[in-house]
Amino acid sequence: MSTLKERLRADLTDAMKSRDDVRTRTLRMTLSAITNEEVSGKEARELTDADVLKVLKREAKKRREAAEAFGGAGRTAQAEAELEEQAILEGYLPAQLSDEELVALVDAAIAESGAEGPKAMGQVMKVLTPRVADRAEGGRVAAAVRQRLSG
Q1: pLDDT tens digits, residue range 80-110?
Q2: What does the mean pLDDT of the chain come to?
Q3: Please, are residues 88 and 23 in contact by the beta-carbon 8 Å criterion?
Q4: b/e map of 103-139 (b: 16 or more CB within 10 Å)?
Q5: Model's pTM, two decimal places?
Q6: Mind giving me the DSSP string for 80-132?
Q7: CATH top-level class of 3-90
Q8: Minimum mean pLDDT among 35-44, 55-64, 127-136: which range?
Q9: From CA 121, how far away is CA 5, in angstroms rounded?
Q10: pLDDT tens-digit series, residues 116-146
Q11: 4 near 48, Cβ under 8 Å?
């Protein structure tokens, strides 16, 4: 069993003992998503820590998008609940790059690839993606590259 999955289970037990409803609910849904991922496909498999991180990122993204949708519809209570769950999930994810760090990495990748103009975005992304890894969402990285190439 992956160490991250073990940590999630241990944290769920602690949350249940301390009667932390939000944390318990969030971790149960996350562990359920991990189990669903393990049994999907042709045969069941044990997820690695990298696979569990992908599930965690996907679940955090779902919470962020749901919070935006609820907020846009004027349902602030539901939006706040989704943001609380997202914050819990982000505690298990690698630290995200700040905007300044991301811009510095983008500038370095542009200089290294010699890219000019928006059409060279693929070249920059090829250099940049391994450096960013799981520390920034793909859409955010692409937007930063697009902005730096066009500006």
Answers
A1: 999 999 999 999 988 888 888 888 888 888 8
A2: 89
A3: yes
A4: eebbeebbeebebeeeeebebbbebbeeebeebbbee
A5: 0.74
A6: HHHHHHHHHHHTTSPPPPPHHHHHHHHHHHHHHHT--SGGGHHHHHHHHHHHH
A7: mainly alpha
A8: 127-136
A9: 36
A10: 877 878 888 888 888 887 788 888 888 888 8
A11: no
Residue 16 tokens, joined: 């249940």
- Residues 124 and 140: their CA atoms lie apart, in Å, by 14
Structure tokens at 121: 């975005």
Q: Which fold has domain 99-150?
A: Arc Repressor Mutant, subunit A (1.10.10)
The domain segmentation of the chain, as residue ranges, is 3-90, 99-150
Collapsed DSSP state (helix, strand, coil) of residue 63: helix
Record the tokens describing residue 6, joined without a space.
Answer: 């073990």
